[in-house]
Design brief:
Layout: E1 2-5, H1 7-23, H2 27-46, E2 65-69, E3 72-82, E4 85-93, H3 98-108
Helix pairs in contact: 1-2
């Protein structure tokens, strides 16, 4: 499968990376986070159905799945396996209003 990140998913990675780098002042954690995202997405790409579905009302997100970033259990990757493509929708910390964010994204998903 090929992997496609939505721009907002890339923005999520950058936002979390900057948090660790600047706000928390732990650059080693920032680098470990970025690497963990890559490893987790690669694992999901190998086994795209291993994650449970994340139930939402949006018809465009009916096949959405959620899996934690390795070593960062509070940050989840939300993705859709679809016709040979793993589409990374968002990467969100669980302290955020995840359901609201994803429902809103479902309206904008093309």
């Amino acid at each position: 499968m090929r992997v496609v990140y939505r721009q907002v998913a890339n923005d999520d990675i950058i936002r979390q990376f900057r948090y660790y780098l600047v706000a928390a002042s732990v650059p080693e954690v920032a680098l470990r986070f970025r690497h963990a995202v890559r490893l987790t997405v690669a694992s999901l790409n190998e086994h795209p159905l291993m994650a449970p579905r994340y139930p939402l009302r949006s018809p465009r997100l009916q096949n959405l799945r959620s899996w934690p970033v390795a070593g960062f259990d509070e940050v989840h990757i939300y993705y859709i396996p679809d016709s040979g493509t793993l589409r990374v929708i968002r990467i969100l910390h669980q302290k955020r209003e995840v359901r609201r964010i994803l429902e809103r994204d479902g309206e904008d998903l093309s």
